[in-house]
Every structure is written in structure tokens, then in C-alpha cells.
Amino acid sequence: MEKLLILLMLVSGCGFAQSKQTRPPAQKRAAPAPAKWPIQSLSVEGIHTYTREQVLAVTGLRVGQLAGKPEFEAARDKLVACGAFETVGYKFVAATQGKGYAATFQVTEVEQVYPVIFEELRVSQKDLEAALGAKDPLFSMAKMPATQPVLERYVKWIQEFLASKGVPEKVAGSVTASAPGEFAIVFRPARNLPAVAQVTFQGNHVIPQNVLREAIAGVAIGSPYTEDRFREVLNNAIRPLYEMRGRVRVSFPEIRTEPAKDVQGLHVTVTVDEGQSYELGKVNIEGPSPLEPAVLLKAGDFKTGDVANFDRVSQGLERIRVAMRHAGYLEAKVTMDRKIDNEKKAVDVAVHIDAGPQFTMGKLNIVGLDLNGEFEIKRIWTMKEGKPFNADYPELFLTRVREEGLFENLGKTKSDFKINDREHTADVTLTFAGENPEQKPGKKGRGRGGD
To answer: How far apart are CA 349 and CA 414, in angstroms?
Structure first.
């Protein structure tokens, strides 16, 4: 019995030791690497029509937010779906402190954008604009993309707003001619409207009937008639003809309509008050300008004291814009306000400059030449790195290279430049074709490469 007890104790001891060995101590698992990090900075490349804040409002992302690939993919999909961009991409890298992302969205804007016009909607336009702005951070009355997704989305929003105001109206949106060579996106009731078939002018003496009819035919004949839209057409197509002759007070006090006799549609009769002729008074640069106002006014070449021809004034504004562009201000906007002095029969013009950033010359790349040819081109290229970038200079430079015969057997040439919106620089590429690589530069004249 004693021997049996000892044996059982030995067996149970062995069993305890064995069970202890089959349970290895639990090992701590390594924590998985985080899939999301805080966004430390957000930027947008490729925008011209919209601001950084507008684009980021569409994405829904914000600085400080935890984000990873799923969040950036979703933000990109929102930008694609909004219909304002041809292409959308993104990139994110470790920020300087290494504890978050520095993210950048890269977009290409839809080029076909037009101003917006509301017609016969029977609600406050100011309230409608506020409602659409609340729906879409990219909303602008000045520039709207003419893509089908955008038009359909805005038609839906406008109909919802009308219904909330007790106006159950179906709405249509389309691109419509508003002036010769100019178009607008028009939102109006979808019901059929009578079309303009014929236009007659009364009270005109300075401009003949046939000239007025020809000016308005392309934008009015065949278009749906509403008085608001027709007055807009008059202001865009007829008023400039009078303002070229100094008739800045021209008006259209009465518009009558009746069924046309020979064709289906409306015969519209417009009474014209041509007013008196005014002369161009003082022209000044108002507000800040990075270039000397005297230099810009000289470039504008305004003919003060002559008839106030606002077609020529607009040409002068364009010459100022070109001068700004040559100084590196590629995104400069030049606008004007005019003050009419009825007593002196003169119009003073205030020119406003929105310069935008100044771009400088970046790298010069030359394609298609041997080392000798490349050295000669770089020698006579006068727009050096870091200097204000003149976007017209590369093509002017190539024209002079061809005219001066710097290279024999020179074929086609091409210039191109790539803008860096973040650094505000422009890298230029000059491409040469047809040059004989065995032929050294033939210096028929000492090339200067432009002024």
C-alpha cells in the first residue's frame, strides 16, 4: 500500500510538470502601423478660376484631420463628381516634422466656363444666388462649367428652391448666345416661349437700320423671347456700336412685340434714344500697381479729348494687360470704372489692376541641337533665371533665330513653357528640328534673341 501511494505521487508529479511545459508564456504582439496620420498642410495645384478654399471645401478635408488613402480617394471622387475639373489627382508625403501629411490636389479645370443668367424665374435673384452658393462652394455667377453634370445638378437645385417659394416651375439650363461671339448659361422655365423672328429699330439716326439688324440677327433671331433677355442682347450687341461713337447714354426706352406676318414668331420693335456724343476725359490708374502708372498709361495709348470710343478703350486695357504679362504677371486682370460727366459731356475712366503673383524664369531646356548649338542659344537667350518671365518672349526669340539665319538647315521650331504655381516660376523648352548635327552654328548675323 505504501509502495502504491509513492507511485501515484510520482505519476501525478510528472503529469503536472508536463502540463506546465505545454503552456509557453504568452508573447506580446507588435501594434499595427497606423494607417492614418494628421493632415498638416493642404494645397491645390492647377487652379485659375477657383480658389484653394473653394476646392478644399468640396473635398471635405481639413488641416488637423486624421486621414489615409480612403479619405483622399473619397475627396478625389468628390472633385471628379462636381463636374468642374477635367482631371483630378492627389499626392501626400510626410510633413517636415514627420508626424503627418503634406497633401496636394492636382486638378485641370474645365475650360468651357460661361457667365450665368436667370430668366423669368419669379423669385429674388439675390436669394437664389445665396441658396446656390450654400449648395456648391464652387458656385459663381461669372464662371460656370458648361458640363452636363453641372447643368443637371443646378437645374435640380433651382427647381427645389422655386418649390420652397411656392413656384412649382420646371427649369431648363443651356448655353445660349448672348452677344456676337459671346455665350452664357441661361436657366429659365422649361415651357415653350415664342421665338424672335424679326427686329425693327425706331429713332435711330447715327447708325443705319441694316447695321443694327445685322448686329442683332446672330444672337436674337430664332431665340426664345423674354423682355429681360432681349434687353440683355441689346446691351451686348447694340450698345457697343453706339459707344464706339461716344453715345454712352444710349437707351432703349420701349420694346413692343406682335406676331410676325410672314413667318412664325414675334416681330420685335425697339425704340432707340441715341443720346449725345461724349468725349474721353481723364484716364487714371487707381489703386495699387506693381508697375509705374505712367508706364501703363503710355502702353494703353488712350486718346483723351477724342470721341469716347469704348472699343478703343477696351483695346487700351488689353495693351496694359499685355504689359503686365511681359513683366511676369501672367494672371493679371485689368478692369475699369467710368464716370460720366453730363455737364462736360465727357467720360473719365479709372483703371484697376489686379496683378496677381509675379512669375520668374526657371530652367531653360533645349531639345534637338548639339552641344555647340545649345551653347550658342543659351548665350543669346536674354531672359535669365530668376528674372521676370515674359510668356511671349520664347516664341519671339525663335522667330528672330529664324530671321537672322543663326542655323543652317533649320527646320521647325517650337517653344513651350510649364508653370509652377507653387514656386511662381516657368520652365521653358525650345525644340529645334532639321539642323545638321555635323554643321556648326552658322553666324550670318550676331543673334540678340529679342529685346
So the answer is: 40
Q: How many beta carbons lie within 10 A of that of residue 338, not counting itself? A: 17
Band (9; pLDDT cuts 50, 70, 90):
very low
Q: How far apart are CA 438 and CA 436, in angstroms?
A: 5
| Distance, CA of 331 to CA of 48 (rounded, Å) | 8
What's residue 23's pLDDT?
54
Residue 61 to residues 53, 95, 106, 126, 261, Cα–Cα distance (Å)? 11, 16, 15, 29, 61
Task: pLDDT band for 28, please (50, 70, 90 cuts).
Answer: low
Q: Is the pLDDT of residue 407 over 90?
A: no
For the chain, helix, strand, coil in percent to 5 are 30, 30, 40
Work out the pLDDT band at 17, boundaries 50, 70, 90.
very low
Model pTM? 0.62
Using alpha carbons, select from 136, 142, 135 the residue that is nearest to residue 116.
142
Rg (CA), the chain: 34
Cα 269 to Cα 129: distance, rounded to the nearest angstrom: 32
**Strand order in 266-273's β-sheet?**
196-202, 266-273, 251-259
- Say how far apart CA 180 and CA 237 lie, in whole Å: 7
Q: How far, in Å, CA of 118 to CA of 180, rounded?
A: 20
Residue the block writes with cell 530652367: 363
The 10 Å Cβ neighbour count of residue 164 is 10
Q: pLDDT per residue over 347-389, tens digit each?
A: 999 999 999 999 999 999 999 888 988 999 999 999 999 999 9
Q: How far apart are CA 358 and CA 335, in angstroms?
A: 19
- What tens digit of pLDDT does each residue of 50-103 get? 999 999 999 999 998 888 889 999 999 999 999 999 999 998 887 766 678 888
Domains assigned to the chain: 37-109 (3.10.20.310), 113-273 (3.10.20.310), 279-354 (3.10.20.310), 360-432 (3.10.20.310)
Average pLDDT over residues 33-55: 86
Q: How far is CA 27 from CA 19, 24, 43, 366, in A?
A: 19, 9, 44, 62
- Please check whether residue 408 is in contact with residue 360, taking contact to mean a CB–CB distance below 8 angstroms: no
Phi then psi dihedrals of residue 220, to 5 deg: -110, -45
Alpha carbons 154 and 146: distance in angstroms, whole number: 11
Give CA–CA dist 65/417, Å, rounded. 36
Q: Which residues pair with 425 in a beta bridge?
A: 360, 420
Binned at pLDDT 50, 70 and 90, residue 16 comes out as: very low
* Chain position carrying cell 443646378: 154
Residue 230: Cβ-neighbour burial (10 angstroms; 0-12, 13-18, 19+): buried
